[in-house]
Amino acid sequence: xxxxxxxxxxxxxxxxxxxxxxxxxxxxxxxxxxxxxxxxxxxxxxxxxxxxxxxxxxxxxxxxxxxxxxxxxxxxxxxxxxxxxxxxxxxxxxxxxxxxxxxxxxxxxxxxxxxxxxxxxxxxxxxx
Length: 128
Prior knowledge:
Layout: H1 2-18, H2 30-40, H3 45-55, E1 69-70, E2 73-74, E3 77-78, E4 83-84, H4 93-96, H5 99-109, H6 114-117, H7 119-122
Antiparallel strand pairs: 1-2, 3-4
């Protein structure tokens, strides 16, 4: 019996070395993340989810690029917030595709002018 217990302990230790606990860490799903940021910024979660659903063409892809065409080619808008890099030179591509950055940006700009001119905000009811 002692040998059996030692073998199990050794097996568990080997597994722990091969598969560290961090590899099994919980990854927050996108809906929970959006809801968490929405609540923090006092934005209706359902509306923020609808906005992102529209902006990402229902994919919630953090790396998505707009399909819109501009005179210079494909529009340079990226991520959950579809941040238009030429209009925001202070924002990098890495920031635009970072979900935390995009959700903070949306939360901070929800009640400002951006809410009025964003195409998806004008059609939000369609995505609720």
